Amino acid sequence: MKEKFDEYGLKWISWYGHTEMCVLAYDKDSDNRYHPFATYGLAEVENGHLIGTSFHNFEMPLIRYDTGDLVEATKVSANGMVEEFAIKEGRSGDFIEDKNGKKIPLTALIFGRHHKAFDVADYIQIGQTEPGKATLYVTKKNDKTGQTHFIKTDSDISRLFDLSNVDLDFDFKILAQPVRTAMGKLKLRV
User: Fold this and answer.
1) Which residue of 42, 58, 134, 144 is surrounded by the most CB atoms within 10 Å?
2) What tens digit of pLDDT does each residue of 123-177 get?
3) From the centroid of its chain, how far is CA 13?
């Protein structure tokens, strides 16, 4: 087994998943070979796209969801079940540009880091009107008494994000409600 260690000598494992709860997989050998949990959902590869069918979504049971990830089925069982897949290209998601014109994927910037803001926010969205500058919009959670958390000002929010190693200037705005599309949907980039 090939092992990966971080800068502190600790072993790590890579996970694949998303909020739609259709596919959960792990890369035990750190070689881009993800093993999906069949008890979580059904993983299929169709025209190079990873398709998931959730077994735990009670709002829309057994809905098939195109994850937007381009993958290759690297191991398929005799009955056609995907037992292993390799990611060829990640989701064609939203990006923002840094000061040098480099595209920063929002899924990596927002969901790929351990932001403390997730402890106090119901929604985090991001906007950009010019390269090198971005605004993070945060809709706070209410606690059990109906009071908002200790976050009172935009500067209180700034210390809850890990925005290291990106060449961007950030502003922070607290919103009472998240920004929605005309159809009522929530988007990460607004």
Assistant:
1) 134
2) 899 999 999 999 999 988 865 544 445 566 667 788 889 898 899 999 999 888 9
3) 17
CA neighbours closer than 13 Å in the CB half-sphere of residue 169: 6
Contacts of 25 (CB under 8 A, 6+ apart): 15, 16, 17, 34, 35, 36, 37, 43, 85
Whether 190 and 137 have beta carbons less than 8 Å apart is answered as yes
To the question of pTM greater than 0.70 for the whole model, the response is no
4-15 b/e (C-beta count within 10 Å ≥ 16 → b): eeeeeeeeeeee
The answer to whether residues 132 and 169 touch, using CB atoms and an 8 Å cutoff, is yes
18: closest CA among 87, 79, 81, 75? 87
Which residues, in sequence order, are bridge partners of residue 38? Answer: none
Pairing relationship of beta strands 133-140 and 121-130 according to DSSP bridges: antiparallel
Q: Token pair of 5, please?
A: 């260690």
Higher-scoring residue by pLDDT: 15, 10? 15
The pair of three-digit structure tokens given for residue 164, joined into one six-digit string? 């290291």
Q: Cα(62)–Cα(54) distance, rounded to whole angstroms?
A: 5
- Three-state DSSP at 88 gives strand
- β-bridge mates for residue 142, sequence order: 148
Sign of the torsion formed by the C-alpha atoms of 49, 33, 105 and 98: negative
For residue 119, give the 3-state DSSP assignment.
helix
